Automatic annotation (TrEMBL):
Organism: Takifugu rubripes
DUF1899 domain ranges (all copies): 4-68
One Pfam family here: DUF1899
Protein name in the entry: Coronin
UniProt keywords, alphabetically: Actin-binding, Coiled coil, Cytoplasm, Cytoskeleton, Phosphoprotein, Repeat, WD repeat
Domain of life the protein comes from: Eukaryota
Gene name as annotated: coro1cb
Length: 474
């Protein structure tokens, strides 16, 4: 008899563990909207969660360390007039987040350094161009201030957020609802999954379809498609018999998949989360109580099942932490933020190692927060791969610049030069009294602006209610 040889992989023993109860975020009214987005976005500073809100749409932004029970009166980001459907943190500024809503708008917000102290109702910029609800927002991975949005009007718009303009509009490519959009590693191509069962690879700047596959998955339920680091495409969907499937495709020849695997007959849509550094795909099904993970390699069967992490509670949504937010000292290779009905529970994935030294094989250089290109360069046709950073000494974030929208310039100033690093040296010098006064004045002005915004919102609401009362009286 031949012995079956077990495939060697350093990720065979990835160990998932939910944190203790006191490290969860409790008493959060997670959104009940029937839309297949993850409802949660995470970065090394904040966790943002779409919540149930009366009289419009809102999401809550919590500093990572603010665990425990969240007060019902905790301030929210509440500028949309319809439910929020998707949110995405900017990869180049940890205080900037974009949101798409049923009110057909995309809004970009600047979150204060230490989180919200008062409700935030004034976005930095409102992007208007969709005629139906906006279900997908996604930042460009390497170009500063480039944001993509996809709506139920079946069109994709790519914005230059720095000028507030819609620069590219892909409106005749999808005859039906777009289920997912994914940027390639350097952001030169898009990969979309549509209700017409086609997966398309699109060059957005040339506005043409480079490749497409009809009936990538034959089932009628929603599909997802994401780009992998090597340019291949990973898809999840349903078979004709409504079994959940995953598949791997080559972009240059999409006639036949590299591989297809049947999974189970559950009906929850599978949300894929991909780590380009380790080539692991994590699949989280909406309504499931498990996270399955697979390693993608060049050898058959190409998509290797690793393990399943299971809990008792089903998940309403899921957030995924970027690599630079992980604890390298604990050999943490992924962290998820699982949404329950009333709370958010972090789940930590580690590879157990005996050594306390930095594990180079688990942490190759990863994408850092610095953009490779400015928006204008990308729109002009330039490409740039992500600027990589080492996690050896633990990632230390640089100070984020304030987000500004101007008509002719980009969101933020050019990347800091060496001369600009002087203020970090002066941190220990006691500031002059005038600086303290300026800070105090700024704080008062911020509070005043916040109160004024709240009064304006209440006025609008009163006007709406008066109109409704008048109609009922008639």
């Amino acid at each position: 008899m031949m012995r079956r040889v077990v495939r060697q992989s350093k990720f065979r023993h990835v160990f998932g563990q939910a944190v203790r109860n006191d490290q969860c975020y409790d008493d959060i009214r997670v959104s009940r909207v029937t839309w297949d987005s993850s409802f949660c976005a995470v970065n090394p500073k904040f966790v943002a969660i779409i919540i149930d809100a009366s009289g419009g749409g809102a999401f809550i932004v919590l500093p990572l360390q603010k665990t425990g029970r969240i007060d019902k009166a905790y301030p929210t980001v509440c500028g949309h007039t319809g439910p929020v459907l998707d949110i995405d943190w900017c990869p180049h500024n940890d205080q900037v987040i974009a949101s798409g809503s049923e009110d057909c708008t995309v809004m970009v917000w600047q979150i204060p350094e230490n989180g919200l102290e008062t409700p935030l109702s004034e976005p930095v910029v409102v992007l208007e161009g969709h005629s139906k609800r906006v279900g997908i927002v996604s930042w460009h991975p390497t170009a500063r201030n480039v944001l993509l949005s996809a709506g139920c009007d079946n069109q994709i718009i790519i914005w230059n957020v720095g000028t507030g303009e819609a620069v590219i509009n892909l409106e005749d490519m999808h005859p039906d609802v777009i289920f997912s959009v994914s940027w390639s590693r350097n952001g030169s191509l898009l990969c979309t999954a549509c209700k017409d069962k086609k997966v398309r690879v699109i060059d957005p700047r040339k506005q043409k379809i480079v490749a497409e596959k009809d009936k990538a998955h034959e089932g009628a339920r929603p599909m997802r498609a994401i780009f992998l680091a090597d340019g291949n495409i990973f898809t999840t969907g349903f078979s004709r018999m409504s079994e959940r499937q995953l598949a791997l495709w080559k972009t240059d020849s999409m006639d036949e998949p590299i591989c297809v695997q049947e999974m189970d007959s559950s009906n929850g849509v599978l949300l894929p989360f991909y780590d380009p550094d380790t080539n692991i795909v994590y699949l989280c099904g909406k309504g499931d109580s498990s996270i399955r993970y697979f390693e993608i390699t060049d050898e058959a069967p190409f998509v290797h099942y690793l393990n399943t992490f299971s809990t008792k509670e089903p998940q309403r949504g899921m957030g995924y932490m970027p690599k630079r937010g992980l604890d390298v000292n604990k050999c943490e290779i992924a962290r998820f933020y699982k949404l329950h009905e009333r709370k958010c529970e972090p789940i930590i994935m580690t590879v157990p190692r005996k050594s306390d030294l930095f594990q180079d094989d688990l942490y190759p250089d990863t994408a850092g927060p610095d953009p490779a290109l400015e928006a204008e360069e990308w729109f002009a046709g330039k490409n740039g791969g992500p600027i990589l950073i080492s996690l050896k000494d633990g990632y230390v974030s640089t100070k984020n610049r304030d987000l500004k929208v101007v008509k002719t310039n980009v969101l933020e100033t050019k990347p800091a030069t060496k001369a600009e690093s002087v203020p970090t040296v002066q941190k220990h010098v006691s500031p002059a009294p005038s600086a303290k006064m300026e800070d105090k004045l700024e704080e008062v002005l911020r509070e005043f602006k916040s109160l004024r915004d709240r009064v304006i919102l209440q006025d609008r609401r009163i006007a709406r209610l008066e109109e409704q009362v008048a109609k009922v009286a008639l």
